[in-house]
Design a protein that fits this description.
Helices cover 36% and strands 18% of the residues. By secondary structure, the chain is α/β, with parallel strands linked by helices. The strands form two sheets. Strands 1, 4, 5, 6 and 7 form a five-stranded mixed beta sheet that branches. The chain has a two-stranded antiparallel ribbon with strand order 2-3. The protein starts with 6 loop residues before the first strand and ends with a helix.
Length: 280
């Protein structure tokens, strides 16, 4: 726990390799996730900027839900392989969207995980775009259903962020004295050195990830009534309102059963007696 015991990364963002036609931002995407799931940076995570040291303080939170017949109807995606390779609720949902796209549009959505051997929908085709919109709208309006309940166990990490400049670009006193190689490459000018540090700021970022606390918060669902509690509450209510316990209730049922059996056996004896008298 603490900044000194966490993970420290120094990232070279290679700004010169970026394509301005594809992206207008510079940085890196960071996802803190459970080791058992595959991260999806396009849907989750945080951005870190060049020239900054970003500190991420994390604390672990776990949710445990109940399977059917309880309300959430959660699913253990790590053990249940009947629904494909999905490892969590989000993966199952995206797989369902692709299945619906294949069934209704005869192609797959290019903005999601692609599948080999199937046609990819063209975003330049009005028919394909309208069909994909109808699929998303149908799922949103629940006219199209995806059987993807929440995971029975899900671990997340609450993150607290802070950042600071790697170098101070404003105060010239913060720059180190130029070495002989730096003087030769920049003609001995402090201006050239400033340009060198500025270029470094555009390409490098520092990331520190550590636990804010070692406390593990668990939210666990519990059944309102266990099977043994049903009989306990039934006996308690009978004892409260009728003045008898559950054992006494079963004893009363047994007594009634024996009494009914005695009455029937007595009648049977009475029916057999006249036959014996006539024979004599």
């Amino acid at each position: 726990m603490g900044a000194l015991s966490g993970l420290t990364l120094e990232l070279n963002l290679e700004r010169d390799e970026y394509l301005d036609e594809i992206t207008s931002t510079v940085g890196a995407r960071v996802v803190v996730h459970d080791s058992r799931i595959v991260p999806q940076p396009e849907n989750e995570g945080i951005d870190i900027s060049p020239g900054l040291q970003t500190s991420v303080m994390v604390s672990k939170v776990t949710f445990e839900r109940l399977p059917p017949p309880y309300k959430d109807r959660c699913r253990n995606y790590h053990k249940d392989e009947s629904h494909g390779p999905a490892t969590r609720h989000l993966d199952c949902f995206f797989d369902c969207l692709q299945d619906l796209s294949l069934r209704l549009c005869n192609c797959t959505d290019p903005s999601m995980k692609l599948r080999e051997g199937f046609e990819i929908c063209s975003l330049e085709s009005d028919a394909h775009v309208c069909c994909l919109d109808d699929v998303l709208g149908g799922v949103k309006n629940r006219t199209l259903k995806c059987d993807c309940p929440l995971s029975c166990r899900k671990s997340t990490f609450d993150m607290t962020l802070s950042s600071s400049m790697l170098f101070n670009m404003e105060e010239e006193s913060e720059f180190p004295e130029p070495s002989q190689e730096t003087v030769q490459s920049n003609s001995g000018s402090r201006r050239g050195l400033r340009q060198s540090w500025t270029s470094s700021n555009e390409n490098f970022a520092k990331l520190r990830v550590f636990y804010k606390t070692l406390d593990h918060i668990i939210y666990r669902q519990q059944p309102k009534y266990q099977s043994n509690e049903i009989f306990s509450n039934l006996g308690g209510q009978l004892g409260l309102w009728l003045g008898i316990s559950l054992v006494a209730w079963f004893e009363a049922i047994e007594t009634i059963y024996l009494l009914i059996g005695y009455v029937f056996s007595k009648r049977q004896i009475q029916k057999e007696k006249p036959q014996d008298v006539s024979r004599s």
